[in-house]
Amino acid sequence: MLYKIPLLLSKKIKKFFQSPFMQRLKQKYPWLFAFIRNRFRTGDFFGLPFTILFTLTVINLSMLSEIAENVVNSQKVKNLDIQVSGAFFNLRTPFISLVLYYFTQLGSVYGVTIITLLMSILLLWKQRLYQLLALLISVLGSGISMHFSKLYFHRERPLNLAYYTTESSFSFPSGHSTSAMALVGVLCYIALLEIRSKRIRAFVFITGICYILLIGFSRIYLGVHFLTDVAAGFLLGFLWVLLAIGLMEYSALKQFKLSRS
Questions:
Q1: Is 64:232 a contact under the CB 8 Å cutoff?
Q2: What residues form the membrane-spanning segments (predicted)?
């Protein structure tokens, strides 16, 4: 999908670099002009597609770093977490709690493992090896980084508000939120690449987004995570989704070039 963006914008990009400002920049600082031009190069993964992914990664890391720092140092953020968790605790009902309890199991280690295995078999059967590798990198990479992040931050869960007895792991970041983003984020992107119908693509994408958000919501509603745990989990999972997208984009652009040669 990203490799198509440069192709769609190629005329506008060419016009931009032919503008008077860029031509003056070319004459005065040819090395800078060449660097910028290469970052917007079309038809090359390390041109505009890589620039887009790199920019999103930097933004993501900045936001994740800010949340992590506030969780450690900011009493205001800690108070906000407690207030949000307390508000959901007061709104909790037995029926919704039970429904969300069973739903949130989809984001557990067992749920993610089963879904990953089923999708891996499907991708292997369809011989989508780059997509299979991207899926495994996202799921396994996010799981490993999430595990060590929990050990590093050593944050206790809001046990006094928990709907059920939780596992013994620490709270920050949320493992369910990380895994949901890493798994379903990649699956949504694969669907965008593989499904031709715009309506079905939109349905799958919206369903995937709702699934991810509902997993995060369930962790706060059930009192097993703070708001910042879930936000950090989404950001950490999305980092691995970006890496997986990079791999798939490289493969898609490679295949696109072969089809035109």
A1: yes
A2: 45-64, 99-125, 132-153, 173-195, 202-224, 230-253
Q: With contact defined as beta carbons under 8 Å apart, do 179 and 113 qualify? A: no
Rounded Cα gap, residues 150 and 223, in angstroms: 17
Question: Cα-Cα-Cα-Cα dihedral of 58, 229, 155, 236, to 10°?
Answer: -30
**Phi, psi angles (nearest 5°) of residue 27:** -70, -40
Q: How far, in whole angstroms, is CA 106 from its chain's centroid?
A: 17
- Give every CB contact of residue 246 below 8 A, 6+ residues apart in sequence: 49, 50, 53
Domain limits of the chain?
A: 1-43, 47-260
Q: Tell me which residue of 67, 60, 36, 39 sits closest to 51, measured CA to CA.
A: 39
And the tokens for 218?
């369930």
Tokens of 101: 């309890």
What is the distance between the alpha carbons of residues 157 and 175, in angstroms, rounded to a whole number? 12
Angstrom distance (rounded) from CA 48 to CA 51: 5
DSSP secondary structure letter of residue 157: P
Read off the pLDDT band of 6 (50, 70, 90): very low
Among left, alpha and beta (phi > 0; psi -120 to 50; other), residue 162 is beta
Rounded to whole angstroms, the Cα distance separating 56 from 247 reads 15
pLDDT band at 23 (very low <50, low <70, confident <90, very high): confident
Cα(236)–Cα(222) distance, rounded to whole angstroms?
A: 21
Q: Rg (Cα) of the chain, in Å, rounded? A: 21
pLDDT digits (tens, 9 = 90+) for 88-123: 888 889 899 999 999 999 988 899 999 999 999 999
Query: Measured in Å, how far apart are the chain's first and last C-alpha atoms?
Result: 20
- Single pTM value for the model: 0.88
